[in-house]
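Technical note accompanying the year-one report. For the benefit of new consortium partners, we illustrate the data format agreed upon in the data management plan: each record pairs a sequence with a structure-token string. No post-processing was applied to the example shown here.
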Amino acid sequence: MDDYNFPQVTQLAIPFFVGAILIELWLVRTGRAKGSFETRDTLTSLMMGTGNVVAGLLLGVVSYWALLWLWQFRFFNLGLSISVFVAAFLLDDLRYYAYHRIAHRVRWVWAEHVNHHSSQHYNLSTALRQSWTGLFTFTFILQAPLVLLGFHPAVIAFVFGFNLVWQFWIHTETIGKMWGWFEFIFNTPSHHRVHHATNPRYLDANYAGTLIIWDRMFGTLVSLDTAPDERYGVPGEVDTYPQRFDRAVRQPLIDVRHLLRTRHDSLVAVHDTSSS
């Protein structure tokens, strides 16, 4: 069975992650840029990011092996040309859009994803606030069609690393709206601020990973108002301030405990219920 070893993009990007967070922190603390940091909140994000890396090392191999097993049933073998990598990136970015939309509308998957939205701050450290339990949602099966079409699992994993790096830098208030053509095509800080905001007009919007064109195509795009008043966090779901590491880690288990008696619903309904 074919297997390939490509660079681990996200691991190579760790120095960039650390350096960018430190620069943003300095810009915000010196009043040179918009944004907010809170020490406990940032430490929580960093610890959750570390836990995500450990969980990925221990459990990520399971989903990869499952896709590698599926590879034997592929209809084609598209190889390793540049065009294949580009096509894999585009299709996997669409796959991520589908996953992300599901994560906000299906309670089982929301229980895994909610931690990422649990901060009341929106800065680069928030991007590291990732789940430890993604394997148990079984959403990796969304990559199965790509494998059957002939994209090797190693290729899919490789290109998704670039998607994750892109999603890191858009978690900031330091960068405002960008060039019109760029905002039209790509997911940007302003688009993703809408996604993280809990204001009612912003809920259930902007699920894109790298390309915002998916939201444009499927009717889930919401633009940031010219007079921003975003509030971040998850109303009614997580006691998000002060951020306590143990509470953030336990939240998925709490949600899983309740999901069997709670019907699947969107974040809009969660917000409406918590506000009533």
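Partners are asked to follow this layout when depositing records. The chain is about 55% helix and 0% strand.
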